[in-house]
Amino acid sequence: MSILKINSAKLGEIEYSENDVVTLCSPLLGFNELNEFLLISNESSYPFIWFQSVENNDICFILVEATKFFTDYEPTIPKREMKVLSIEDIENMKIFSIVVIPEDPTKSTANLRAPLIINLDKKIAKQIILDNDVFPIKRSLFAAT
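Request: output the structure for the sequence above.
Response:
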């Protein structure tokens, strides 16, 4: 298997193989031309995970597993979306939230209304807009509890 490389604006040179690529079933809102990404995590960045575009070196999102920050976060994923993602066992599924980190990192927020669902086995993903408005688009990661 050949090793591929991209030069991420945020992370520098990244080596990966085709097997590492997560393909979106439909593009992220506002990024219609991007469908292939890499999930990048290491001890120094955990619990934050980089979601680096393979097609555009300048695009890299920050994700978190929402349940690590919000124990009450249990979105209902519609059956049709589970089918689109070929998820038969929820053990193979991860639910991520896209994080916005402003100049003051203590004011970072996670988008709980539009989670990114990833089938880890098949390396396919989709951002899902939840029907119910219980979960906010911007929820503080570090609010006092």
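The mean pLDDT is 92.
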